[in-house]
Amino acid sequence: MNIGQAAQATGISAKMIRYYESIDLIAPSQRSAAGYRSYTGNDLHALHFIRRGRKLGFSLGQLRELMSLWRDAGRASADVKQIALRHVAELERRIAELTTMRDSLSHLAQACHGDHKPDCPILQELAMPLGEGCCADDS
Fold it and tell me: How far does CA 111 lie from the centroid of its chain?
């Protein structure tokens, strides 16, 4: 199957497939006599693995680790679990940050009259020096 077909089958763009090859996340594809990339069922399986991992928010580095473990029949599941739990902790940290941002912006939006006057607490907040206002803990 050529790169366009592989892209369609996996939902990963041809550009990203080439990128994953360039960073050695996946093995370089076989080439036809004419020099076109050719993908096997195993290649598609790896691309599906990557797509699913990206949808779960794993970084390319984490995916590299997970793919290495996936290919290692002698792996310990504890190693996989450790990567997943570190990722869960990072997601929880990001969720907390996003919740704080949402709450701050919601508060500012409620304080804004939204009328024809130029006075706007949202813009006033954004114009404050770092370390002041609702985003005081920002670094």
Answer: 34
Is residue 45, in this structure, part of any structural domain at all?
yes
**What pTM value is reported for the model?**
0.79
Indicate whether 8 belongs to any domain: yes
Return d(Cα 86, Cα 23) in angstroms, integer.
23
Q: Which domain holds residue 42?
A: 3-58
- Specify the DSSP element, H or E, that contains 37: strand 37-38
> Two tokens at 70?
């996936």
**What residue type is 20 in one-letter code?**
Y
Reported as a single tens digit per residue, the pLDDT across 80-139 is 999 999 999 999 999 999 999 999 999 999 999 889 988 899 999 999 888 777 765 554
Q: How many domains does the chain have?
A: 2
Per the structure block, which two tokens stand in for 6?
């592989």
Nearest to 118 by CA among 127, 131, 105, 129: 127
Of the residues 11, 31, 58, which one is the last residue of a structural domain? 58
